Amino acid sequence: MILKLIFRELKSSPKFVLIFILNLSIGLIGLVSIQSFKTSFSEELDSRSKSILGADLAISSRQEIDLKNVTSVVSISDHAKSIRLFSMAGANNNSRLASIRVIESKFPFYGQILLKDQRPLKFSSDKEAYIYPELQRQLDISVGDNIKIGDAEFLVAGLVIDDGQQSFQMGGIAPRVYISPEGLKLANLIKEGSTYTNTYSFKIKEKVTKEQLKQLSLSINDSSARVITPEKSSQQVSRILNYLNDFLGLVSLSGLFLATMAMMYLFRSFLYKRRKEIAIFQFLGLKKSTVFCILIGQLFTLSIISSLIAVSFGPIILPFIIDLFNNQLGYNLQLTYTYSSLLLPIIIGVLSPMFIGVALIYPYLHIDYKFLFSHEDEGESKASSWLIYLPWIVFFYIISINISHSVIIGSIFSSFLFISLGLLFLGGSFLLKRLRRLSTEGSLTSKLAWGFLTRYRVSTLFIFSSLMISTTMITLIPTLRNVLLSELERPLKGEGPSLFLFDIQPEQVEDLNVFIKEQDNSEVLVMAPMIRSRLSKIKGEVVQSSVKESTTREEERAIRMRNRGVNLSYRDGLDISESLTDGRLTKGVFDPDKNEAAEITLEHRYASRLGVDVGDTLEFEIFGIPLPAKIVGLRDIKWTSFRPNFFIQFQKGVLEDAPKTFVSAVSADRTKIDTIQQKLFKKFPNISVIDITRTIGRITNIMESMVLILTSMTFLVFLVGVLVLYSLIGHQLIIRLRDLNLLKILGLKDSQIIKIVLTETTLISAFSSFIGSILSLGLGVILSKVAFKSSFVFSLPLIILPIVVVTSISILITYFTTKSMLRRNAADVFGDIN
């Protein structure tokens, strides 16, 4: 009986069914698209994870690893050592920073490093080098030419087109060069204090368990060492893309939020229209539970149909998304559609309406039967307590965190939507009541327009909120883009360093200073010492390398901070890119006779991730020597200054005698950067140089591509908003059909009626888009100050354009919808009305 009643009720309301399914399915399409891409990408990475790592297990550390500590835990059949470091590579009077990869001939154990001529990489000589095509273009060289690295000349023996990771990366800080261990000795790149990373790759006999990973971490006893499995390796390769996917997911979730609002309005209207049938069911003895099952069953049926329609678009949309990512970010992704990506969108597409439906149905289960015997219409049902909507609010909050993989970002996103919506409905309802007097003032058009707006308050507020959120989303992303670009482009405007130098040996500092002074319009801005170390204790507790899985981006960063090696430095006072946020600066020179621990200051976000504050203690280890320290202050660093800055700054008198290298920032005439870089390479071949202006250009291109992808998804949200607008306006006009035709009977022309409706729409759309733009400004200011620590960039066209576009589209939709409605004969309309 229940199923029969469910389908009978739905069959009797075809327009409601069509509009409901259309809204929810399009609202879900964005989420389906991103989820399809994320799942396909993740499964592709998993299938190639061993090829990406090239081994069953790897251990990465800045120190040498005792292999006995590894063999005591896992059974090894073979192993290989590789080294990663940066150095300059030069040819044809050009030089560029390169990422040097030193590998043994037997590596990788899985997959292969493929060359352009489809050969696997194999060294036949110690003086061979294999390079990325990017470096070939930068140095204008060909296979068979010579390339200088350090003290040695190498023959370019081939171009690497696939090394396991290349297909999934959008370009690092420098293109790779592969050389052999004997080639590294010839180049003489590693000197005292040089920065490099050892990676030990293992081929093992049996799969490593989580317990063995923990034991391995303990046996190595090096908090800076990272134990890498194929799964972790694939996650690291895709980290940037995962962050982008997180934000794309939230943008698509806002589209679902808009669709859910439309669904809420439509189902609410559907229940109101069926209120007498609901009351009669109960009056005739049908249990409330049975009535509830009928109503929730109708909603469940529509939700399932909508979800299935949405997920059916996954295989169609996925190729377009892959092409967009490949073209904009330089990836080479070849993904296939997987049905495992269907689960989350279907769960969200069904549960979200269910939670809303329970809240909407509940008041109608307690309806008063008296109105059945009254000739009066009881009007809109009284609003129920907001507590009924709490399950849906909690559900949406959890989904926001799950999709963004961040408690902070998910909380900000969901809080913004709920708080703005709550304030709008509370304040808007109050304001519309106050504005009711305008329905008695002014011209006939104005009176009737304000009369309809204030009478149909719920419809007005739903349309208003949909347009407001749509405008906020399409304005916010370009606003944040302007903020980030303004920070990145400072060095391009001559407001910061042009070159960043590292691996400077202590004995080269004086000569380097003299060399830079000899160059026209050039200056050494900063020369900072850097000492390699590892964090051994936090608040007296020994730090051990963590192998646990992170569930949020915050946990991921905290684990990475604890597990990484640390670079220490020392100087008096603050750099111009720093400010003190808590505590004080270090004082004087360290005296071991008076103080047990040296004074240090930390970057405040780094301190937060370590879980420490002013007054806490840390212990570092430099070449086996413990170095206790006490935190006396926290600093804020403007990283976009591109000046040498450090998470940890010691007071003087502690690190002066430790093995060290120096890093430096140099300002120079932009037109002479290439010349200076080439002279540096010839005079100081071991010093690595980063052209900041070129790096910023690369970062800017990547960011512009990401913004384009985000904007594309944002316009999908806007499309959902437009559809919601069409649905709400169309449904409202259906409800008001009798009122509009009554005006025709009373003598008003179609043009006058259209003018009245257009006046309403213009008022709603103009004010909602204006408030949406203001909200995006507010969010932009908050995010630029709190998240990016940057100055907000105001753009008037960015505020005006969405207002004009949203208002124009709203007017067009209303015009054509109203014109279509008014074509019906008034007698037919009144004849159809029940």
Topology:
Blueprint: H1 2-11, H2 14-47, H3 49-53, E1 57-61, H4 67-71, E2 76-91, E3 94-102, E4 114-115, E5 128-131, H5 133-139, E6 146-149, E7 152-162, E8 176-179, H6 181-187, E9 197-204, H7 210-220, E10 226-228, H8 230-237, H9 239-273, H10 275-283, H11 288-311, H12 314-329, H13 343-361, H14 390-404, H15 407-434, H16 444-455, H17 457-488, E11 499-504, H18 509-518, E12 523-538, E13 541-542, H19 553-563, E14 566-570, E15 578-583, E16 598-603, H20 604-610, E17 617-622, E18 625-637, E19 648-650, E20 661-667, H21 673-683, E21 688-691, H22 692-735, H23 737-745, H24 750-786, H25 796-821, H26 826-832
Protein described:
The structure is a single chain. Helix content is 53%, strand content 17%. By secondary structure, the chain is of the alpha+beta class. The model is unreliable at 375-383 (pLDDT under 50). The radius of gyration is 33 Å and the shape is elongated. It contains 26 helices and 21 strands. Strand 2 (76-91) and strand 3 (94-102) form a beta hairpin. The strands form two sheets. Strands 2-3-8-5-7-6 form a six-stranded mixed β-barrel. The chain has a six-stranded mixed β-barrel with strand order 12-14-19-16-18-17.
Question: What is the structure about, briefly put?
Answer:
It contains 26 helices and 21 strands. The protein is α+β, with helices and mostly antiparallel strands and 834 residues long. The protein has a six-stranded mixed beta barrel with strand order 2-3-8-5-7-6.
